[in-house]
Amino acid sequence: xxxxxxxxxxRLVRRIEREDGPRAAADPFRQRFHLMPPVGWMNDPNGLCRxxxxxxxxxxxxxxxxxxxxxxxxxxxxxxxxxxxxxPPMMYPDQPWDxxxxxxxxxxxxxxxxxxxxxxxxxxxxxxxxxxxxxGHNTALAVSRDxxxxxxxxxxxxxxxxxxxxxxxxxxxxxxxxxxxxxxxLGARTKEDRGExxxxxxxxxxxxxxINTLTTPEPFGYMWECPDLFCLxxxxxxxxxxxxVKQQGNHFQNVYTCGYFPLCGDFRGEYTxxxxxELDCGFDFYAPQTFADGQRRVLxxxxxxxxxxxxxxxxxxxxxHCLTVPCLLRRDGERxxxxxxxxxxxxxxxHVAPEDASVFDMECRTQKQGRLVxxxxxxxxxxxxxxxxxxxxxxxxxxxxxAEVPTVQMLRVLADASSLEVFINDGxxxxxxxxxxxxxxxxxxxxxxxxxxxxxxxxxITEQQDVK
Length: 468
What we know:
By secondary structure, the chain is mostly beta strands. It is 5% helix and 52% strand. It has one helix and 32 strands. The protein has one helix spanning 4-25; strands at residues 40-51, 54-62, 72-78, 83-91, 102-110, 113-123, 135-144, 152-157, 166-178, 181-190, 195-202, 209-214, 223-232, 235-243, 259-265, 271-273, 277-278, 286-293, 296-302, 319-320, 327-332, 335-340, 348-351, 360-374, 378-383, 385-391, 400-405, 410-416, 419-424, 429-434, 444-456, 460-463. A hairpin with a 4-residue loop joins strand 29 and strand 30.
C-alpha cells in the first residue's frame, strides 16, 4: 500500500540516511550494543513483538531532525537479539489521520500477521492550546502480513469517539488478545488534568467499545502515556509513564516518571491499584514497552527523557538517543525485577583489568560501602540504604540521581560508549543514563567491591532495503 506522499517520503528518507549517515556513524559516542537511529531522532519503542522467527523493534523515528521533527516508525528485526537488520521505515505520515506524525503504539501478532495499532497525530493551524483543542489523536490500525511492508491502514477512532471528559490527549494504544476477545488500553488526560487509562474491548480487532477506566483515587500526574497491561506469574501490572508527578525526596527525580501499579481484581470491572513503583531511577529512561516471548516478558525502554533540562552532544553529529538493552521482567510479590536478557552475555569478550575498561559488562560483589569511578566521568557510590549516581564530567547537564535500597549486595554495570545501565541486586533497582566522557578514555576505579569485567562486543547491524 503506497501513495504519492509516501513514495516521496521513502526517497527523501533514503537520501537523508545516505548523506547524513556517515557523519553519525563516525561519532565516537556512537553506541556498540544499543539500537540507535541511523540518523536523526529516536524515541519510544513501538510494536515490540516476536512473530515467527523474528523479533521486531519499531521505534519513533525522526530522520529529518535530530531534535525531533515529524515521526515515522523506524524498524529493526532480529532472530536472536544480537544480529539485527535495519529495515526501511514501516510507516510514514501519509494518511489524513496521521499527517503530522505516526505516533506510538503496539503490535498484535495473529496467524503470522502483524496488526500495528498506533496514534495518528494531526495538529491544526490556529490559535489553539493544543490540549483542549487543536489536536487530533487518532487511533489507527496498519496491517502487515510479511512483517516488512504495510498492506492496509485504517482509522478506528478519533477524538469525538473517546469519553467527553477528556482533552485531546488520548494516545499510545497497547493491544492484546485474551479470553476470545481483544483488549486495548489508551493513555489519557482529562479536562481536570488527571491521568488515566481507557480500557476498550473488541470482537474483531476493528470495532472497539469503551468498557472501563483505570486511575487512582487521588490524582497522580496529569497524563498517563505509553500504557501497558500484562499478567506475570498470576499478578497483573499496569505500566505507564505519568507526566506531572512532583518530586518526593529521592522519588520522581526526573521531569516525567515511568513505572507500574500492581493491579488486583479485574481490569474490565472492579479493581484496585497498589503502590506505584518506578522502573528506573536514572536520568534517561522513559516510555518502556513489554512483549511476551514464550514464557518470558521482555521490556525495552527509550534511553531518553522528553523535556529534560539536560542535553546530548550527539545532536551536533546529526543523531540523538538510543534504546535500552532488552531486559527480562520477573515477579517478586507485587514488585518487578528487571535484568538484561541472557542473550546479551554472548557479547562478552575477554576479561579486562579495571584500568583498561571502556565499553564493558561488570559484575560486582559489594561491601557495605563503596565507590566506582567510570572513565573519570561517572561516580557510583553506595552505603546502607542508598546508591548515588553522579556525573562529574560529560553529563551535558546531568548531575545526581539516587536509588533507595536497603542494602547494596550486587551490582551489574553495562557501560557502552555513551551510556550506563546500573542493575542493583539482580534488578531490584535500575539506573539508566547517557553520559559523555572524553572520547577514548578508559578505566574504572574500584573501592569496596570485588569485580569481574568483560570487554563488550558490538551488535551486528546490516542495512536492508526492499526486503521481503
